[in-house]
Amino acid sequence: MTDRPGATIAGTGSFVPEKVLANSDLAKIVDTSDEWITVRTGIKQRRIASEGQTTATMAVKACRQALEDAAVAAEDVQAIICATITPEMPLPATACFIQDQLGAAGAAAFDIAAACSGFVYGLEVGKLFIESGRYDNVLVVGSETLSRITDYQDRASCILFGDGAGAVLLRATNDAQRRILYTHLESDGQKWDMLQLPGGGSRYPMSQRVLDERMQYMKIQGRAIYKFAVNAMQELIADAMKACNLSVDDIKLIVPHQVNQRIIDSAMEKLGFPKERVYVNIDRYGNTSSASVPIALDEARRTGKIGAGDTLVMVAFGGGLTWASAVARL
Prior knowledge:
single chain; alpha/beta; Peroxisomal Thiolase, Chain A, domain 1; 2 domains; 5-stranded mixed sheet; 11 helices
């Protein structure tokens, strides 16, 4: 035991839309095939938000699950951190819509834009809020409607992305063991152009030019991202293990950003982790950016892949470029 407060993951939740977009459906839109997509990415299908489903509405469903799981009332939440690159609108923050719909009156609410690393970035911020003694209950949610910024004329990128939301309720604890033990964040702004959405901001405000050049959609340098991700995932996990003095046998589960099956397999093989100790759901959901890690975490808990007392490592990387890791003992 320790007098210093820490942050424990007290509850998790997730939500994915009902609509399924299978590889065979994409083959009717662009020049691709189920085999081509599966071999290169591991993705078989992804979920797509229907009309009326938004980043905030999906986030609220995930947050409600997390609150119920933690047995914490919405009015007891003191801060809401939403990680997203597909906000409800530019102003106000999506977290404010979440706060209103949850009924978490008075809670601080703000967004983090760190792309696929956003949820893990949010974990560190929430952890520090709690460790400072400022808050006792913090919601961290990653939610994305990537289908609305995906170019379905670009066969290289439209196969990758899906929609969904995942959340955790962080709660103050004095238990030195069962808490978030470690977080690490990095970025390299020189590589911003590897993954970007140029249109709609102050550099390229919405205009006919933006629409004509399809700048309202994500632009990806796929090969460069792939090369970076393989190295980043391996290094992030190795560094986290070293910082926490953990061996492969000490870690119950790796929960990686669901970016590409080959990237995950390559990194895990180099680190010596067996496949059964790595949670993967990319075949069902594709890449859901900031929602990826919390959806996987929630599923892993609810299916018994990880439970109380187990140690897990979360790792993510995305546009910015950004990358992040976290070690938690449940």
